[in-house]
# Entry
Amino acid sequence: MIRWRALLAGSAVVVPLVLLLQLLFVSMLVGQKMAHGSYPKLDVVIGVVPYMIGFGGYMLIMLLGGYVTAAVATSRVVAHALAVAAFATGLSLWTSISLGGVKPMTLLFFLAALVCAAAGARLWRRRDNRRKQV
# Structure
């Protein structure tokens, strides 16, 4: 049985946080372009930092979204978390896919988001089982 409240709760956590992360990411890219003029020798390092922060932040958000979704769902938690992650990541990638097609990195990003959301749900399940044992 699908628990719509769990899907809405997970989406209500994930979507705004992803939008904030995208705002931070764009701001970092602007800063990167400005730093490129002042520090051209550090271009490789400066170029990687926004993407590492963006990727890592997105995966942490998916982990949190999976945890919140599982806490509300209480049953079939991984399936609910995967649904939220697929919705949010599909929404995030929609414009980039429509512009340039599906690339291997896009699939890797999508799969990593699903894994992180499932890990968040399993983390909730483990903590819930420990709480019940005490």
